[in-house]
Amino acid sequence: MFRWPWRKDRPGTSAAPVAPASTGGTRPPTPPSTAGTWQEVLHSGSATVTGNNHAFVNTGIYTSTVRLPPDALRPPAEVDAPAGLDDLPYRPGLFVGRGNELDRLDAALATPGAALVQAVHGLGGIGKSTLAAHWAATRPHGRTPVRWITADSPAALQQGLADLATALQPVLAKALAAEVLAEWGLQWLATHTGWLIVLDNVNDPAHIADLITRARGGRFLITSRLATIWSDAATLVRLDVLDAAESLALLTRITTAQYPGRDLDGAADLCEELGHLPLAIEQAAAYLAQNPLTTPRTYLDLLAEHPAAMYRHGAATTPEQRTIARIWNITLDRITHLQPHAADLLRTFAWYAPDHIPTTLLDAGPDDPPTRNAALGLLTAYSMITPDPATATVAVHRLVQALARTPDPDDPHRTPTLIDHARRQATNCLNTALPPTHDTPATWPTWRTLLPHIDSLAEHTTPDTDTTTTARILNQTGLFLGNQGRPGGHAATYLRRAHTGYLRVLGEDHPDTLTSRNNLASAYRAAGDLGRAIPLYEQTLTDRTRVLGTDHPDTLTSRNNLAYAYRAAGDLGRAIPLYEQTLTDRTRVLGTDHPST
């Protein structure tokens, strides 16, 4: 954080803040007690003022003299704010909904004695800046001037205050360095009331602490991705995604601005796919507006086929820093700098369902509990995840997940290597969390908790990336679903994919491959599809006899299962001899009292 050139902790300066003067930038009735320190401020910068209002500007390279008007160097407390000083980046066409949030800000402003800080926080791209600009521009707060300061770094904050000083006294820009101008602007705020300053995108409360402490006569509205560090603020507004109707209205408004009658097929589905995130809706709508022959349905297809490019680019007029990929990269840059494990954790979460992710899944991860908790805390602070302490689960916005699992060689946070590592980690954690059995009622609640995340992993991975771990998860899940009376559909799909994975990785003669084929045949049989079940049973029996021998328990199980399928098909002529042979062999191999016998 930069040091102000005139601060309470500098030798020879007053520790007390300047008392507020009056509303709207009017001149105070008496000069403030610290007015004489303004000359000290000037001497601390690059300009030294002497008599006759000459400023000798020393840049370290050359020295020049700037002639200033007689009243140019009045103390900030004596300078009134002229009309027309507001500078909000307000775009009315991009604002929809948010009635509850606007009402909360209104109520806080109208409450007597309320603190001077209001903070809007939420995920990058959620619309914090849009909400702040709309409220500041349209709500009847009666404050003036209304200034917008980007506050994502000390340098940006200094520039914003320097711009305020220049707007109030344009001639000062000719004589004073930015640091001195910033102090002049801060002193103006400290000696006036009735102003509203929007501090946009604050990354660290320490950057604005001195400003808020010294300037007490107006109102600050803060926007920040940070969610957990504003406990002293009078009003906290957590911004969430738009509802379905609002996101559709925003997409429609931008898309049809030039072509009112255009085809909007798939618009609602596109909003759903984008998770109703305002910035993503805006980016997609700008692309559609620029490409009038492209429908929302076509955009969905492009998003599925070329996700990295579509997340990275908007329309030709979309600023690079206003795409969702760039917005979240800024956050991930900071998160990675503070705690590299947090970015790894976010990429791991990307493979699960967006809601109710059990934190117990992380028990099998590589991080020790303190490291893991620090990573979770940091992701929570930057609104990248939303924890639910009551259920010990977290939620991640579906578009954050989509981006985090999409490889992009040009993005340091999403290289193919990082994405592959996260997919394997997510798979290993799920595998470790699986209950030991699928047919014990005590394990069923755990199965039902994990099932949405298994479904998500299966949906967002392809069979060519499956490992034996993936195959085991799918095999066990298929058995659980079959046990729950759902042998068709997902159960058969998962068992078929598990068999394909085992076959590709382990080969056709591996015992796990043979077992998975038997399980798939059983799912077909339970679903009544004997036409596919019987050939698989026959092949499994032949291969197990060859690989394991005629007396191996698995071979005997295959013979029993094939006999059962023949019987179900009404072919008792083949069923009965197999049953008789299986009973004889199991009695001989396992004994008369064995459960299988």
Task: Describe the model.
The protein folds into 3 domains: 37-238, 3-Layer(aba) Sandwich (Rossmann fold), CATH 3.40.50; 244-322; 434-590, Tetratricopeptide repeat domain (Serine Threonine Protein Phosphatase 5, Tetratricopeptide repeat), CATH 1.25.40.10. The protein is 51% helix and 8% strand. It contains 23 helices and 11 strands. Helix 6 links the parallel strand 6 and strand 7. It is elongated, with a radius of gyration of 34 Å. The termini are far apart.
CATH architecture of the largest domain: 3-Layer(aba) Sandwich
Helix content: 40-55%
Could you please say which CATH topology of the largest domain applies here? Rossmann fold
Number of domains: 3
Average pLDDT, all residues: 84
Structural class: alpha/beta
Low-confidence region ranges:
1-36, 43-64
In terms of quaternary structure, the protein is single chain
Number of strands: 11
Distance between the termini: 78 Å
Which strands sit side by side, in order, in the main sheet?
Answer: 5-6-7-4-8
Shape: elongated
How can the largest sheet be summarized? 5 strands, parallel
Which CATH class of the largest domain? Alpha Beta
Taking Cα atoms only, what radius of gyration do you get, to the nearest Å?
Answer: 34 Å
Q: CATH homologous superfamily of the largest domain - what is it?
A: P-loop containing nucleotide triphosphate hydrolases
The tally of helices reads: 23
Write the layout of secondary structure elements.
Elements: H1 37-44, E1 47-49, E2 54-58, E3 63-67, H2 99-110, E4 117-121, H3 128-138, E5 146-150, H4 154-168, H5 178-190, E6 196-200, H6 205-214, E7 219-224, E8 235-238, H7 244-255, H8 267-273, H9 278-290, H10 296-305, H11 307-312, H12 324-338, H13 340-349, E9 357-358, H14 369-381, E10 386-388, E11 393-395, H15 398-404, H16 416-433, H17 444-460, H18 468-483, H19 487-506, H20 511-526, H21 530-548, H22 553-568, H23 572-590
Parallel strand pairs: 4-7, 4-8, 5-6, 6-7
Antiparallel strand pairs: 1-2, 2-3, 9-11, 10-11
Helix pairs in contact: 4-5, 7-8, 7-9, 8-10, 12-13, 13-14, 13-16, 16-17, 16-18, 17-18, 18-19, 18-20, 19-20, 20-21, 20-22, 21-22, 22-23
